[in-house]
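Ticket #4471: structure output looks truncated?

Reporter: J.K.
Steps to reproduce: submitted the chain below (95 residues) through the standard prediction queue, then opened the result file.
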Amino acid sequence: MKLIDEYQKTGFIKAGELLLTPTHALDFIKEIESRDILILGVNLWCYFNDQIAEDPGSLDLSEIDNIPESVSIAKQFITHNLPEGTAFVSFVLDE
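Returned output as attached by the reporter:
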C-alpha cells in the first residue's frame, strides 16, 4: 500500500494528488521522513471562486537528492512560508 493511500482519509484526491491541510501535511512529512522518501516538490492549493485551484507558487525540490534536506526544506516552507490563502498542500514524491 502506498503512503498516499494510507493518508487519503485525512485529505482528498484532486487532479491525482492527495491534498492535505498544512497541519496534516506536517504529519505526512514525518511519515515520509521515517520511510526515507525524497520530496521532489510541494504544491499549493487555494480556494478560487468557491473551487479549489492549484496555486502556481509551488516549491520545487527536484534538484535536491538528500532526503533529510528535502524534508527540512518542505517542513520550513509549510510551517513558515506558505502564501496567504493556502488551504491545502500536496507533495511530489520519489517513491
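Triage note (M.O.): checked the attachment and the full C-alpha cell line is present. Residues 3 and 78 are 19 Å apart (CA to CA).
Status: closed, working as intended.
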